[in-house]
Amino acid sequence: MKPIIIVPAFNEEANIEKVIDMISVLNIDYIVINDGSVDDTEMVLRRKNIEHLSLSVNVGIAAVTQMGFRYAIDNGYDAAIVVDGDGQHPAHFVLRLLEELDSGNDYVIGSRFIGRKKPWNMRMIGSRIITACIYLVCGKMIYDPTSGMRALKKGVLLEFARDMNYIAEPDALAYLLRKGYKVKEVLINIEERKGGVSYFIDPIRSIKFMISVIVSVLLIQLLRGRNEH
Amino acid sequence: MNIKLQLVLIVLVLIMDYIILRNIHKSKIDIRYAIIWILLSLSIFWMIIFPKTLDELASFLGIATPTNALFMISFFISYVMIFYLFKKISIHLDAIKDMNYELAKLRKEVTELKNERKND
């Protein structure tokens, strides 16, 4: 198996270098995708000679990861792991995720909560609602459906590289489960953010996200057929 | 439909036609889309000049007044057109994404080639 680590980065001048340092230790190829950052992310990437693609226009996290998957396919990789550019995903868990791909899973989620207590704050209530929706349509409990750290095997990789009509991780997950792919969760520990701001700090954005994801999981992903290419 | 309403509508349609034609003239709107708008304004014009068509249509659909029939039809047409726009936007978003990716890939290749040259 030839894996590549995909690192989406949007305004991560403060974190990206540390993330890459952690990844380099693993001796696995990686690609940073700079999603039209408006800070000095590009400068840092160039100065440190970090393998990267830089996008002209900001496209958002879902589209960026898709480009990563496409890049992986274009360059002959047959597995990909997404590790956020903000340093929240400790890179050494990449090996754990890859192990699980090796033992026959198609999609491995770096889960913050499997076999562990989820806190009861607003965000985690949202997470529980999504878990319930996925269980409803797919019959499988996914304890951390919004985790950004994931490993994908060739089949899933191809599918997402070609046609990825989803808004975030949960509905992608629902789609894969319904297609019969083998999905597994693996416990990871998350670091606190060292810099930058989280996307979900804005309550209106969070509500919009929740509604979109619920509609997508419950309705749209059920209707999606296979796109012929 | 009373004459006052007819006159107001005719003026509105004429303004709309003027805007459409001016935009065609300045090449600001794609002919394919301009055609849709011209057909639309022609049919509205027809309805105003021959309100009988609308009367018949209204009684056929069981709508009390022709004006309401006109509203319903316009609403439906707007609905279809907006959906069409959403679809176009989705297609364009996909195209932008593809081009964005291709451009990023080229940029990377160019930088690599430049570096190779420097090292030679």
Strand content of chain A: 5-15%
Distance between the termini of chain B: 83 Å
**What are the secondary-structure elements of chain B, in order, as H or E?**
HHHH
Which two chains touch over the largest interface? Answer: A-B, 14 and 9 residues
So, CATH architecture of chain A?
Alpha-Beta Complex
* Total number of strands of chain B: 0
Sum up the overall morphology of chain A in one term.
Answer: globular
Query: What composes the largest sheet of chain A?
Result: 7 strands, mixed
Order of adjacent strands in the largest pleated sheet of chain A: 3-2-1-4-6-5-7
Number of strands of chain A: 7
Q: Pairing-aware structural class of the strands and helices of chain B? A: mainly alpha
Low-confidence stretches of chain B: none
Number of helices of chain B: 4
What's the CATH first level of chain A? Alpha Beta
Strand content of chain B: under 5%
Using the alpha-carbon principal axes, give the shape of chain B. elongated
The portion of residues assigned to helices of chain B is: over 70%
Largest sheet of chain B: none
Mean pLDDT of chain A: 85
CATH topology of chain A: Spore Coat Polysaccharide Biosynthesis Protein SpsA, Chain A
Helix and strand topology:
The complex is a heterodimer of chains A (229) and B (120).
Chain A: E1 3-9, H1 16-24, E2 29-34, H2 41-47, E3 52-54, H3 61-74, E4 79-82, H4 93-102, E5 107-111, H5 122-138, E6 150-153, H6 154-162, H7 169-179, E7 183-187, H8 203-223
Parallel strand pairs in A: 1-2, 1-4, 2-3, 5-7
Antiparallel strand pairs in A: 4-6, 5-6
Chain B: H1 3-25, H2 31-49, H3 51-61, H4 66-119
Helix pairs in contact in B: 1-2, 2-3, 3-4
